[in-house]
Design a protein that fits this description.
By secondary structure, this protein is mostly beta strands. The protein contains no helices and 37 strands.
Length: 349
């Protein structure tokens, strides 16, 4: 599984599932700090481009609930907004904090810590999501169930795969088919789909036969099957009222009536966020608004969605042998919605 939001937006690192990002995003921060890379090291800046935490880390992740995950050497820990290591780097992997808890991995087993770094649920799971909606999905032997923050199983292990609760429903897999359960563990949408993604803005993307469609929380089909499932066609979940769709290798967007809102014309498209979406024309990325108008011309080799008014962009993204799997963002910077740099671009050494 990759960063694409299959059911719960979790991705696998080794054998451990760590939450990447949900449609709800990170919890809001009173003062949002943005990760930056300079001289091959990571630090943080304010929204005006002022560096407030000097780049000293090998990797830095967004702040969540006042703490940010950082990597020093090959271990993950957490800093506060003063840049102090409040939980020393000791984990092989660590998720962001959600609901006061972070999923951490050591020796290929997952456990859970609180914001002081205290291990509140021992390392024991082969796979684990973060807590979301009061529950975390975990794997015991070859089955998945759900625990609460005491580590007690609320829904016993019984599924082939399970994902976090989103909009009070969790996507599960049983006998190779995708369905949904509620927080009592009752199946409310029976497993009958070849694929499904978590609910987003009241709708879930599923595959019926060989076509994509969307259902509501009762399982009723709201957008009928009309998009083919093959290498030339694809679709994403709804975000900001629109869902990206690929038809004959070109990406555009549909609305919640299933009508094409922005005709397929791009070589790649990311979800809309803060009313703009990144799209690729040829080998360069830019941004469009909801009318499909290009508001920031294609010029980047890498970009992320806008977050708190800024988007992280780079001229190129590289993975060098000398840095292992850690990314090098050449020409890294942050732009505002007019395309103006508030930080960078920084050429990496």
């Amino acid at each position: 599984m990759n960063k694409r939001k299959t059911c719960s937006a979790i991705f696998v690192i080794g054998s451990i599932m760590i939450l990447s990002s949900l449609s709800t995003g990170y919890p809001s921060e009173k003062e949002y700090l943005f990760p930056i890379q300079k001289g091959g090291k990571w630090g943080y800046m304010r929204g005006n481009g002022e560096i407030v935490i000097k780049p000293t880390f090998d990797l830095a992740r967004p702040f969540s609930e006042g703490l940010a995950g950082v990597v020093v050497g090959e271990k993950s820990g957490f800093i506060d907004k003063m840049g102090r290591l409040v939980i020393k780097p000791q984990y092989d992997h660590a998720s962001p904090f959600f609901e006061g808890v972070a999923t951490v991995v050591s020796n290929e087993k997952a456990g859970f810590i609180d914001s002081t770094g205290r291990l509140i649920i021992n390392y024991q799971f082969s796979d684990a999501t973060t807590f979301f909606g009061g529950f975390a999905a975990v794997q015991v032997k070859d089955k998945y169930g759900f625990i609460d923050k005491t580590g007690k199983f609320i829904i016993k292990p019984q599924f082939d795969l399970a994902f976090v609760f989103v909009e009070n429903l969790a996507c599960i897999v049983k006998d190779g088919k995708f369905g949904f359960i509620n927080k009592s563990g009752q199946i409310v949408i029976r497993p009958e789909f070849n694929h499904a993604e978590s609910f987003s803005e009241g709708l879930a993307l599923v595959i019926v036969g060989k076509k994509f469609c969307f259902i509501d929380s009762s399982g009723k089909i709201i957008i009928k099957p009309q998009f083919e499932v093959d290498e030339k066609n694809g679709i994403g979940s709804f975000s900001d009222g629109l869902a990206r769709v690929m038809i004959d290798n070109k990406w555009g967007f549909i609305n919640k009536s299933g009508q094409v809102a922005i005709k397929p014309q791009f070589d790649l498209a990311l979800d809309f966020k803060e009313s703009v979406a990144a799209v690729r024309v040829g080998q360069r990325l830019g941004f469009i608004d909801k009318s499909g108008q290009m508001v920031i011309q294609p010029q980047f080799g890498y970009t992320e969605s806008f977050e708190n008014g800024l988007a992280r962009v780079a001229k190129e993204l590289q993975f060098k042998a000398s840095t292992g799997s850690l990314p090098i963002y050449d020409g890294l910077g942050y732009i505002d919605k007019k395309g103006k740099y508030v930080f960078g671009p920084v050429k990496q050494d």
